[in-house]
Amino acid sequence: MRLGELLTGLEYILLQGSLDTEVQAVENDSRKIKAGGLFFCITGAVFDGHGYAADVASKGASVIVVEKETELGGNKEITVVKVDSTRYAMGVICSAFYGHPSDRLTVVGITGTKGKTTTTYMIKSMLEAAGHKTGLIGTIESIIGDRVTPANNTTPESIVIQRTLAEMVEAGLDSVVMEVSSQGLMLDRVAGVSFDYGIFTNLSEDHIGPNEHKDFAEYLGWKAKLFTLCRTGIFNVDDQHCGAILRGHTCNVITYGVKEGADYQAKNLQLYERDGCLGITYSLEGKYKEEVMVSLPGEFSVHNSLSAIAVAKEMGVPMAQILEILKDIHVKGRVELIPISDAFTILIDYAHNAMSLESILTTLKAYRPKRLVSLFGCGGNRSKVRRYEMGEVSGKMADLTIITSDNPRDEEPQAIIEDIKTGMAKTSGAFVEIADRKEAIRYAIMNAQKGDVIVLAGKGHEDYQEIKGKKYHMDERDLIQEILEEEDVTKICGYNNRYFA
User: 262-299 pLDDT, tens per residue?
Assistant: First the structure.
């Protein structure tokens, strides 16, 4: 493709070479560049792509896109284009290179602190029930038809997003649901993407620090950017920051929540527990009137489902199909029920910091379990403060805490457990410590009592344990199955396996 065509819509300076230069591939990894390729010099936290410009020029790259003065090793033949931001240019150029794939899909973007992952799967399931061939880009994985690729970032680099969207178009998909992180917006990872719908879930203090956002105001500002990029915005009016998110929006507005006047309003919320399954029901008011049952616990499941209903209805999905999906929805690692007993509940959740652990324990406590059992560990090579905080939260809120291992990385598991116990010591909470995670889960299952709710927190969708720089397979679902095969299941309270059968 001719370079001039790829630069349409961008402000740039042609430093040397020609706009007629042919571009046969686009790359931001110098190791992958080939003859005829275009290379983006990206300035990152660790590496600066401008330092590899001379190397890619020697490999036969036809074009280099830069944002500052760059040493080319005396190469006068390569075409060099200077832009204000190579990150932004990468999204726009890659979109053009791959034929503007987002223009050929209905694109739904979801941003917020919590609820993004669950909501993407809800929407995907609803659209597919109505016959839409729907892809997904998110925290857990990217999905194109039957092909599932584990994710490295919530929102991948723009070059990956555009390539993935093009693959979705090639595979015959007509829509895609994607998580859009504040980092993804700040780093222009979604540059070049045409969003049909944007969803705001909620906002709370998170991702603020030296390598992320300098303060909450910046965090909020980047979240709000999505609503200058989409045609229709769907907003949680119950969130205290919704007004600030709406400020400066350029999209059509649809609202949801329990607040009066919301376009999609939930009333008469009722928790339910049945045979170890936890969920919530509510009456839908506003644009539509229906009785809704969601097979996920907590009020946040109401908000997630309301936003999903709004998108699905705007895209023409019949309400009967929407309601059927919600009755049986489950998302890997997000309050994921593992139904092995009618007498107690065991869930897997990704809660891996004090805020998310407190949120899930608060949600589960509302069901008034006989005992609330919290099983978790903390990652190695990370802040000790997180360990103290999680220990304190669990000690205050759970009836029993089972302290175990997460991803110890380069630290000794027992040293991490001792840090967690420091936080526990600020409370009167009962606890046991079992470093081996499988044995900790075994203890939780074999000692479960009727009416217990047990949450295995921290790993969620992850299927590995990282030790000394190496990832070993460890999926909590597999661990539970192994335990059931190894134990006398008649000794398990209310055993009635509906998951592995």
Answer: 999 999 999 999 888 999 999 999 999 999 999 999 99
Render pLDDT for 80-137 as a digit per residue (tens, 0 to 9).
Answer: 999 999 999 999 999 999 999 999 999 999 999 889 999 999 999 999 999 999 999 9
Residue from 348, 356, 317 nearest 331 by CA? 348
19-42: b (≥16 Cβ within 10 Å) or e: eebebebbbbebeebeeebbbbbb
Q: Determine the Cα–Cα distance for residues 184 and 223; give it in Å rounded to an integer.
A: 9
C-alpha to C-alpha distance for 229 and 337, rounded to whole angstroms: 36
CATH architecture, domain 3-97: 3-Layer(aba) Sandwich (3.40)
Are residues 253 and 261 in contact, defined by beta-carbon separation less than 8 angstroms?
no
CB 446 within 8 A of CB 416: no
Q: Note whether 26 and 38 are within 8 A (CB).
A: yes
In this structure, the number of other CB atoms found within 10 A of the CB of residue 73 comes to 10
Residue (of 19, 32, 175) closest to 105 by Cα position: 175
CATH fold of 101-327: UDP-N-acetylmuramoyl-L-alanine:D-glutamate ligase (3.40.1190)
- Residue 230 forms beta bridges with which residues? 195
Q: Would strands 372-376 and 290-294 be described as parallel, antiparallel, or unpaired? A: unpaired
Q: What are phi and psi of 235, to 5 degrees?
A: -120, 135
- Fold classification of 336-491 is Protein-Tyrosine Phosphatase; Chain A (3.90.190)
The phi, psi pair for 352, rounded to 5°, reads -135, 15
Burial of 14 from C-beta contacts in 10 A (0-12 / 13-18 / 19+): middle
